[in-house]
Amino acid sequence: MKAIALLLLVAGCWASVALSARTVSKYITAQDQDRYGKIFAEGLKSTDLQAVYFSTANVGLSAADKTAEACKRLVTVYGESKLNDFERNFYLAGAWKNLACKEAIAGKVKDAVKGSLAKDAGSAQEIYFNLFAAKALGLANDDGVKAQVGKNLQALLKKDDTLNSLGHGFAVAAEIGTAGAFAFDRVEEAFVQADEVDGKMLQFEGGLSITALVVNSAFKLASSLKKPVPINAEQAVKFATYFLSRTSVQTPKGVSILLEALNTLTAEKTIAPVCIALSGNGQLQPESPVLGVKISDLLGKPLSPALAVVSTTITSKTTNEALASKVNLVPTNSDPTVFIYNLKALNPARGQYKVDIETGSYKQNLKINVLGKVKVASLEIGVGDSDSTSAVKKHSVTFSKKLDTELAADSQQKIVLRTQLVDESSGKPLNVHQAFVLLRNKATGQEIIFVAEADSSKAYKFEMDVGARSADFGYKSGTYSIELIVGDALISNSFKWLVADVNIKFASDSPKESDNTARKPRPEIIHQFRVPEKRPPRVVSDLFTGLCIAPLALLFILWAKLRTNVSNFPFSLSAVGFHLGLGAILALFGVFWLKLNMFETLRYLIPLALVTFFCGNRLLRSIAGRATEK
Q1: What is the DSSP code (8-state) at residue 216?
Q2: SS3 for 10-72, per residue?
Q3: Where is the Ribophorin II C-terminal domain (predicted)?
Q4: CA distance 51 to 595
Q5: Which strand (E) or helix (H) includes residue 94?
Q6: What is the β-pairing status of strands 495-505 and 478-487?
Q7: For a pLDDT cut of 90, what percent of the chain falls above it?
Q8: Of the four, 321, 484, 595, 607, which is 20 to 30 A from 527 by CA?
Q9: Exposure b/e, 598-626, CB count within 10 A at least 16 = b
C-alpha cells in the first residue's frame, strides 16, 4: 500500500508540474488573421470547389457576396469539379447554404444525397460527406437512418482502421449520437498513434489535415456523448504547439481546419493551453526599459475570466542575481492581453536576463535583452614606419567628426588606429561583438574590411602594414577613406563612423596581370605509371633461358640414345589431338612469356584446354579398353 501511495504521490506531483506548464509561446497574430482573410477572399474567386466551400464557411460574407451570380458561378464550379460525387455534393450543399442562395438547389443533388444514406457506403469518408451534405440541405435523418449509418460505420471501421478513416468516423459518430457510441472506444486507439517531435509537439502521420481531423472529431464525439476529453493538459500543449507551427498554411482548407483545431483546444478550459510570450522583440531600450508580456488564448484573444495577478521574477544571466522578485505586471489600456512592467527604477545593467512569468496555474520562462549605449571615449589614428618601434605620431579625433588633414602612407609605413569604447551609463570599458575598420577606395569604391582586436586595456586597436597588405588592395594606390564600424546585440546605438582619409602609395614593382599565376590554368596533371625496373643484360637473359631449356633438350637426347619405342603410339584422332593440344598449351605459355598479356593468353587458352581435355579423356578411355581386352 505504501508503494501504491508513493506512486500516486509522484503521479500527482507530475500532474501538477504538467498543469503549471500549460503554456505555449506562439499565437495567431493580427498579421496571421489578415493573411488568412486574403486567402479566403482569393478562395471565393477560385475554380476549386473545395476552396470555395472553405472560404464561404470562414469569411464574413457581405450582401455583395451573396448574389445570384455567386450561386450561378458555384453551380458552374460544381459541374467542372473532378472530385468524387459525394465530395462534390457536400461542398456544393455547404457552399450553397453559406451563400444563402435563394433558389432551390438542383433536385438531382438532393436525390443523390438522400439515396446515398439509404444504402451502405464503401468508406467512412463517404458516409461523412453524405451525412453532412444531407445536414446542409436540411434533410431530416430519423433514428432509423442514424441506426443504419451507425451499423454501416461500425462494419467499415473494422475493415479500415487508418487515421483518415477513424477521423471521419468520429465526426459521423458525433453527429448520429448514441448510435455511434461504439466509436468512442476507438479514440484511445487513434491517439496512441500520435508521433512526438523533439519532445515538444504531437502530430499524426499525414500532417495538418489528419491531425486536425482526428483532434476535432474526437473532441466533438466526446462532447456529444458527455465523455471526458480524450487527451490530458500536457498532450494539449504539444498538439497546440504543432498547430501553431503550421500557421504559414496557404490554402483555404488548411487555414480552416487549423483555426477549427485551435478553437477546439481553446474551448476546453480544463486542458486549454494559454500563450505567454514577449510583446515585441524582447529588446529593452535604455531610455525606456519596459517589459511587455502577451498573455492570451491560442487565437490571440483575452482570457476569460480575466487574470487576477501576473507576477514576474527577473534574473541576470551573467551574475544570476535577481533584479526584481515577484513584482506584478499591470495590464495596458490599449490591449487587455498585454501586461507591462517598467524597469527604469531598477536601473538594469546592460545584458541578458531571464524572466519567469507566473499567473495562477500558468508559468512561462522568457528571455530579454536590456540594451545599453556605447560611447567613444577616445580615438587616435596615425602613420609611422613599419620597421620602427618608436612611437607613431597620432591624431586625436572626436566622435562623429572627421580628421581635418589627409594622412599619407607608403609601402614602408603602417597605419595605426586605437579607440576606447565605454558604456555610456557606467563609463566602464565595453567589449563589443563587432569592431571593424573599413578602407574604401574613393575612386573605385573597392572596399576591404579588417577586424579591430581588443588589447589588454580593453581598447580596440587596428594596425596595418601597407607593404605586407599590398596584395589585398590589388596594388591600387590612391585615396582611401577609413571608417570605424561598431555593433553588438546589446547596444542600441551601433554606428559607422568616417574617421579620416589616407593617401596610400603601394610599391611600384607590383606583379603584372600576366604574371599572376593564380588567374591562369594550372598545368595538366598526367598520370604516370611506375617506371619498370631495369632489366638484366641480354647475355644474362639468354644464358638463363638456355639453362631452362637444357632439361628438355637432354630429354630428347636420352630418348634418341635409348631408342625409345613409339610403335605402340595409337595414331587416332584423340591421341593426336591430345598431344597437339598439350604442345600448343606449352607453346602458348612461351608466347605469353614473350609478348602476350594475361587476358589475351586466357582467350587462347580456354579453347585449347577444352580440346585437350576432351581428347585426353577419349584417349584414356581407349587405352583402358585395350587393357581390359588383353
Answers
A1: H
A2: HHHHHHHHHHHCCEECCCCCHHHHHHHHHHHHHHHCCCCHHHHHHHHHHCCCCCCCCCHHHHH
A3: 529-626
A4: 80
A5: helix 85-98
A6: antiparallel
A7: 51
A8: 595
A9: eeeeeeebeebeebbeebbebbeeeeeee
Q: What distance in Å separates the CA atoms of residue 428 and residue 417, rounded to the nearest whole number?
A: 20
pLDDT digits (tens, 9 = 90+) for 488-520: 999 999 999 999 999 999 886 555 554 555 567
Distance between first and last Cα of the chain: 103
Q: What is the pLDDT of residue 561?
A: 83
Has residue 471 got a pLDDT over 50? yes
Say which range, 18-27, 29-38, 160-169, 600-609, has the weakest mean pLDDT. Answer: 18-27
C-alpha cell at 419: 579607440
Identify whether the C-beta of residue 86 lies closer than 8 Å to the C-beta of residue 116: yes
Query: Model pTM?
Result: 0.71
Instruction: Give ∠ CA 315-238-292 in degrees, rounded to 5.
Output: 35
pLDDT at 518 (0 to 100): 58
Q: Does 61 have pLDDT greater than 70?
A: no
* C-alpha separations of 98 from 75, 101, 258, 371 in Å: 14, 8, 20, 52
Alpha-carbon dihedral angle through residues 505, 511, 512, 515, given to the nearest 10 degrees: -170
The C-alpha cell at 160 is 479500415
* Cβ-based neighbour number of residue 551 at 10 Å: 8
Side chain identity at 69, as an amino acid letter?
Answer: E
Left (φ > 0), alpha (ψ -120 to 50) or beta: where does 195 sit? Answer: beta
Cα distances from 136 to residues 57, 100, 110, 531, 579, in angstroms, run 12, 11, 10, 89, 100
pLDDT of residue 302: 92
Amino acid at 77: V
Tell me whether residue 359 is exposed, middle or buried, using C-beta atoms within 10 angstroms of its C-beta: 0 to 12, 13 to 18, 19 or more. Answer: buried
Give per-residue pLDDT as tens, 248-305.
999 999 999 999 999 999 999 889 999 999 998 899 998 889 999 999 999 999 998 8
Q: Which residues does 84 contact at the CB level (< 8 Å), separation at least 6? A: 126, 129
Residue 456 C-beta-side C-alpha neighbours within 13 Å: 0
- Predicted pLDDT of residue 17: 33
Q: Is 624 helix (H, G, I), strand (E, B) or coil?
A: helix
Length of the chain: 630
- pLDDT tens string 389-424: 667 888 999 999 999 999 999 988 999 999 999 999
Average of pLDDT values for 425-438?
A: 92
Question: What span, in angstroms and rounded, lies between the C-alpha atoms of 359 and 339?
Answer: 11
Q: Cell triple for residue 333? A: 489600456
Is residue 305 reached through a cis peptide bond, with omega within 30 degrees of 0 on the bond before it? yes
Residues 6+ apart with CB under 8 A from 396: 378, 379, 380
Region 510-531: mean pLDDT is 68
Biggest CA pair distance of the chain = 133
Quick check: 90 and 129 in contact, CB under 8 A?
yes
Q: Cβ distance 462 to 380 under 8 Å?
A: no
Query: What does the angle CA 339 – CA 345 – CA 348 come to, to the nearest 5 degrees?
Result: 90
Residue among 488, 480, 493 nearest 400 (CA): 493
